[in-house]
Amino acid sequence: MKKNYLVDMAAFIIWQLPVIYFIKIYNGLPQSVPLHFGLDGKPDRYGNKEEMIWLVVLLSALSIGVYFLIKYLPNIDPKKTARYSAEVFKKIAFALIIFLSGIEFFVINSSVTRELGFDKMLFPFMGLFFAYLGNLMHSIKPNYYVGIRTPWTLEDPDTWRATHQLGGKMWFAGGIIITIATLFLPIEVGFMVFIISVVIIALVPVIYSYIYYKKHKQ
Question: Is the pTM higher than 0.70?
Answer without folding.
Answer: yes
